[in-house]
């Protein structure tokens, strides 16, 4: 597994990097046969350290967790526990489905945009009807079954996931509803 360990505005020492590689390697190897890479990003927010961990699996699924603590090692340990819990749930669901994916998840490219929020002055008229684009990024749209899409959305902790449905090859959306249930849009 490839590791990318970095810090935003803080120095990451060799001992922390070694700790991350050992602990994350043990946690991931319990539940995933072929993890491809892991990104661990440390930052500081006021008096707390923040650790964001992202692990990519060979099946195309991604797990991510974020934790905060007053100690940098404690922040990583909490994040690692969340990743381990997500992988345990993922493996349990795979066993429940009694279906192994023989081919890796197919990904197709798409553009992702971040739009500027509404201005605070609600009485003013917008200058144009076109939204202001703050950022534009490339993203991947996976080709999954509906169950795998729900699992991927939960593993990523995302409120919504766009995916290509393997059943009909159409673009579908799964999302978390306000009542806690999962919604599925199949146009």
From TrEMBL:
It is found in: Cytoplasm. Residues 130-183 form the Sigma 54 modulation/S30EA ribosomal protein C-terminal domain. Gene3D superfamilies: Ribosome hibernation promotion factor-like, Sigma 54 modulation/S30EA ribosomal protein, C-terminal domain. GO terms for molecular function: ribosomal small subunit binding. InterPro entries: HPF/YfiA_ribosome-assoc, HPF_long/plastid, RHF-like, RHF/RaiA, Ribosom_S30AE_C, Ribosom_S30AE_C_sf. Residues 73-100 form a coiled coil. It holds the Pfam family Ribosom_S30AE_C. Keywords: Coiled coil, Cytoplasm, Translation regulation. Its main location: cytoplasm. GO terms for cellular component: cytosolic small ribosomal subunit. GO terms for biological process: negative regulation of translational elongation. Required for dimerization of active 70S ribosomes into 100S ribosomes in stationary phase; 100S ribosomes are translationally inactive and sometimes present during exponential growth. PANTHER family: 30S RIBOSOMAL PROTEIN (PTHR33231:SF1). Associates exclusively with 100S ribosomes, which are dimers of 70S ribosomes. Interacts with 100S ribosomes. Belongs to the HPF/YfiA ribosome-associated protein family. Long HPF subfamily. HAMAP family: HPF. This is Ribosome hibernation promoting factor.
């Amino acid at each position: 597994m490839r590791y990318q360990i970095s810090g935003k505005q803080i120095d990451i020492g060799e001992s922390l990097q070694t700790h991350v590689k050992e602990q994350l390697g043990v946690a991931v190897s319990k539940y995933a046969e072929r993890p491809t890479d892991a990104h661990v990003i440390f930052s500081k927010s006021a008096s707390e350290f923040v650790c964001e961990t992202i692990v990519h699996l060979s099946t195309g699924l991604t797990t991510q967790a974020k934790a905060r603590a007053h100690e940098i090692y404690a922040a990583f340990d909490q994040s690692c526990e969340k990743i381990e819990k997500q992988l345990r749930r993922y493996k349990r669901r795979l066993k429940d489905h009694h279906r192994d994916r023989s081919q890796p998840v197919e990904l197709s490219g798409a553009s992702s945009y971040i739009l500027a929020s509404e201005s605070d002055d609600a009485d003013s008229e917008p200058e144009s009807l076109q939204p202001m684009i703050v950022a534009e990024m490339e993203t991947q749209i996976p080709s999954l079954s509906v169950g795998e899409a729900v699992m991927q959305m939960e593993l990523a902790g995302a409120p919504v996931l766009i995916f290509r449905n393997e059943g009909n090859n159409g673009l579908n959306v799964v999302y978390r509803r306000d009542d806690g249930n999962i919604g599925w849009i199949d146009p």
